[in-house]
Write a structure and sequence with these properties.
The complex is a heterodimer. Chain A is an alpha+beta fold. Chain A is built from 8 helices and 4 strands. Chain B contains 7 helices and 46 strands. Chain B folds into 4 domains: 113 residues, no CATH class; 187 residues; 107 residues, no CATH class; 182 residues, no CATH class. Chain B has a 46-stranded antiparallel beta sheet that branches. By secondary structure, chain B is mainly beta. The chains are: A alpha+beta, B mainly beta. At the A-B interface, helix 6 and helix 7 of A face strand 16 and strand 38 of B.
């Protein structure tokens, strides 16, 4: 009986603490939607259809737990408390970066397709197969990659700042990292588990 | 000679047969001679009209490394002439099989003076790397000389032929490379015993395609000619080399050279101490046509620089930048420049201390993204990590940073121990004022560790010019300020202290100014702004808003500009609490306020109040908290279902302007402010 009381009080304490955590958690689903909107705009209609991924799962992944306690917490929180804040991506600064990335994509697309560049695990791009780039174009492609990464980093930071949570930058970046891969066209390369894989 | 030979015959089985005295046959089962061992050796000597004919063969012969064992040896000489002290063979044939060299069928000639240990051997048809070539060997006691002329050899075959003779480490390196192409080699090498004394080598390589596994170093269809001369004096190699590459392309991360367009040549002389590994390059002249000429010298080893001098003769900056600078700065603010002008460079290094002097002549710099430009830069920059100072004196005629024009300026400084400080105050003309920099200090001990700071003051700048340049409505007033400290650390520019702007007879103080990555993808500017005692009459006239008299004060807290556009702030403007001035607002101003508030103008004209030109008010004010493109608005007090933007007071007729919309779309609000054209917010007239 004593153990049961201890367990119950510990569980309640855990839940209370967790409730506070959940209240400020990163809006994973909103971030994915935001990422998808930007990616679809930057990459254009040729990107693959959004893959069906259980929303609940992505939320849990972002919290970083997969245990039953967290699942239990999800329904215990009132709608107001748990309501995911919307993630605004419509600001002149974000639009400006997005526009630059969209223009640049016209040049990058060939190199995604040839496998010369690939998507990194941290939401950036890198030169994957330099051999497939003509010598004369090597530095031009390196420049494109550097500019793209500068813009991507700026984009992730600006989304976080614009939404009043600069500390979300890493979460936004990892969300984008998943979505870039998810929406990559067939034949494009991406990093996964320490190696390159082709879609 | 024979007496000096250590000859042992073990298991000797021999048979000598004489046939009419003109034929001798000798068979030896096993024969050992210094480093040479043979099995089943047979000699057949015939007397001919021209002299002797020799035929010898052996099942196998064991030679010293690197040749090792050869099998099926056959030596034939149809014209062997034996004299007292000499013998010669004018037409010989040698054939054998060796594992790495394969089957060899070589024609040879020998002139020998055995008593003097002198031999001259000509070889024709030596097969190596799928090609046949000729060689001449001179032997004089312990001295020797080898002349070789090869036809075109395929590099792949050459590597294959050479691989067995390479060390494990060398093989491992070769495995990381792919090489194709042809080389043609002429070599004249002389030595004594196993040492080379003089080597003269000419190598012509064509269609060279080389790449490492990571493709970081690649050549495509390169043609080069290399001449090397080297003399060895007690393990000190005096050498000279000439290299010309005039065809093909090469990439050595991150440098790319198209040799068809900009062929390169290198001439160098020096000394290499074989035992210590010490290298002296007495002179090195590198020339890339139409791009750069570099001369230099070097002392040290591959691991350590003792002394290095490099001098770049006057070169066009555009070519230097495109070929040698831009590849290293990709992704930075200076990775896309248009340049004209010339530069010379001197670099001296002794051990870990260096100094560098860069002179610029008529340099024009223009950022292709239109972020900045500098015109007509002249002067010299000195940089050193020594404690011996180097001077810098450089100036430009004009420059532009974003839309801000900078006038002529001269920069005088000195560098000591990677730290640069001004020797004269640095004045930079900005619009009609000046940024007077008193103390500037730059510290750059390493690539990513640059930081600088300065303090100074800004002499008055006309806001008319600022507003015109920045595309703002025409503002009157002066911008000036004392800048106690501006610092650049970790790519952030931070301005301590405050800038003051005399605007509309009031004072605007800009503080906590911080600029992040000013030339980055998304420049960020942060500031807090405090506005005091602004004369509304002048302000309202400036913006053609309709006249309002009175004072206005305000604060813009937490201002953030991203890409030079406001994205976040908390702004409040209102009549100061202790304002004693006359406060009147005109019909036009009320109309304008109404339109800005999203309402329809002209409400006053439709009432009896149209007969009054203006109205007294107690307070007016507006606040906007901008976040996510939405302005959370409030006024100077709460009203029924809204907030007061203008609260009437004083003698009647009084007028209240009440806003009802709390959340306003920011771009929409800006458009309304610009056009003041739409209509009717609720106007309550009392």
């Amino acid at each position: 009986m004593k153990q049961l009381k201890w367990f119950t009080s510990s569980f309640m304490t855990l839940m209370l603490v967790s409730c506070v955590t959940i209240n400020i958690y990163f809006p994973a689903a909103a971030a994915e939607e935001a990422a998808d909107r930007i990616i679809e705009d930057v990459w254009g209609p040729e990107t693959q259809e959004k893959q069906q991924e259980p929303e609940q799962q992505s939320l849990i992944n972002n919290i970083g737990h997969t245990n039953i306690a967290v699942l239990a917490l999800n329904w215990m929180i009132s709608p107001t408390q748990a309501a995911e804040p919307d993630l605004n991506i419509n600001s002149p600064a974000i639009n400006a970066i997005q526009a630059k990335m969209k223009i640049r994509h016209a040049n990058l697309k060939t190199y995604y397709s040839s496998g010369a560049i690939g998507l990194t695990v941290n939401g950036l791009v890198t030169i994957r197969d330099a051999k497939s780039i003509p010598l004369k174009s090597r530095n031009a492609v390196k420049g494109l990659v550097a500019d793209e990464n500068k813009d991507r980093n700026a984009l992730y930071a600006e989304i976080a700042r614009a939404n009043g949570h600069p500390e979300w930058q890493a979460d936004i970046q990892s969300t984008f990292a998943r979505r870039w891969v998810s929406k990559a066209s067939s034949g494009w390369w991406y990093q996964s588990g320490g190696s390159w894989k082709q879609k | 000679m024979i007496t000096r030979v250590l000859c042992s015959l073990s298991m000797l089985l021999f048979l000598v047969t004489a046939n009419a005295s003109d034929n001798i046959k000798l068979s030896i089962g096993q024969w050992s001679f210094e480093d040479l061992q043979a099995t089943n050796l047979q000699f057949d000597i015939n007397l001919t009209a021209k002299g002797l004919a020799l035929y010898a063969q052996a099942d196998s012969v064991q030679l010293a490394a690197p040749i090792g064992k050869i099998t099926k040896l056959s030596v034939q000489c149809d014209e062997l002439i034996l004299l007292t002290e000499t013998f010669s063979c004018t037409s010989g044939k040698l054939s054998f099989y060796q594992a790495e060299l394969g089957r060899q069928k070589i024609a040879f000639k020998i002139d020998a003076e055995p008593e003097k240990d002198k031999y001259k051997i000509n070889l024709q048809g030596v097969s190596l790397a799928s090609a046949n070539f000729a060689a001449t060997v001179f032997l004089n006691k312990k001295n020797w000389r080898l002349r070789v002329n090869t036809p075109k050899l395929k590099i792949t075959q050459l590597i294959k032929a050479a691989t067995p003779y390479l060390q494990e480490q060398q093989r491992a390196i070769l495995e990381n490379w792919q090489a194709q192409g042809n080389i043609k080699l002429s070599a004249d090498i002389a030595g004594r015993n196993d040492k080379i004394n003089i080597a003269t080598i000419n190598l012509v390589a064509t269609s060279i395609n080389v790449t490492d596994t990571m493709s970081r170093y690649v050549s495509e269809n390169v043609t080069l000619e290399l001449d090397v001369e080297a003399k060895n004096n007690k393990h000190n190699w005096q050498w000279q080399t000439d290299l010309i590459i005039d065809t093909g392309q090469a990439y050595g991360e991150p440098i790319f050279i198209d040799f068809d367009v900009t062929p390169v040549s290198l001439h160098a002389t020096g000394l290499w101490q074989q035992t210590s590994g010490h290298l002296v390059i007495s002179t090195a002249e590198f020339n890339q046509k139409n791009v750069v000429q570099v001369v230099g010298d070097f002392k040290g080893s591959f691991a350590k620089i003792e002394q290095l001098n490099i001098k770049i003769a006057k070169a066009k900056v555009a070519g230097l930048y495109d070929h040698w600078l831009q590849p290293f700065v990709l992704g930075t603010a200076v990775d896309s420049l248009d340049l004209t002008g010339t530069a010379t460079l001197d670099y001296h290094q002794t051990a870990d201390n260096y100094h560098l002097s860069l002179a610029l002549q008529n340099l024009f710099v223009s950022d292709t993204l239109n972020r900045f430009s500098v015109d007509d830069v002249n002067g010299s920059l000195g940089w050193t990590n020594y404690d011996h100072p180097m001077q810098s004196n450089i100036g430009w005629k004009k420059a532009i940073v974003y839309a801000i024009p900078l006038g002529q300026s001269q920069f005088q400084a000195q560098t000591v121990s990677s730290s640069l400080t001004l020797t004269q105050p640095w004045d930079i003309a900005i619009f009609d004022g000046q940024l007077k920099i008193n103390k500037f200090a730059l510290y750059r001990p390493g690539e990513q560790q640059e930081k600088w700071r300065f303090d100074g003051r800004l002499t008055p700048i006309s806001m008319e010019q600022v507003s015109a340049a920045l595309g703002w409505p025409l503002l009157h007033g002066k911008l000036a300020g004392v800048i106690p400290n501006v610092s650049y650390i970790d790519k952030h520019i931070k301005v301590d202290g405050a800038l003051t702007v005399k605007l509309f007879e009031g004072t605007t103080v800009i503080s906590d100014l911080q600029l992040d990555q000013p030339f980055g993808s998304l420049p960020q500017l942060y500031a807090n702004i405090d506005l005091k005692e602004m004369n509304l009459s002048i302000l309202s006239k400036t913006f053609d808003f309709g006249e309002i008299s009175g004072k206005l004060a305000g604060k813009i807290q937490g201002l953030r500009l991203a890409n030079w556009r406001p994205v976040q702030f908390d702004a409040r403007f209102a009549t100061p609490q202790n304002d004693k001035s006359r406060r009147r607002i005109s019909q036009k101003a009320i109309d304008s306020l109404t339109k800005v508030g999203g309402g329809v103008g002209g409400a006053l004209q439709r009432s009896f109040l149209r007969f009054f030109e203006d109205f007294s008010y107690q307070r007016l004010g507006l606040s906007c908290k901008l976040h996510n493109e939405v302005c959370e608005m409030a006024g100077v007090g709460e009203a029924k279902n809204g907030y007061y933007i203008v609260k009437g007071g004083g003698l009647p007729p009084r007028i209240n302007v009440v806003g009802h919309t709390r959340r306003v779309d920011w771009p929409d609000l800006i458009n309304r402010l610009k056009t003041v054209s739409e209509s009717s917010g609720p106007v309550v007239i009392e």
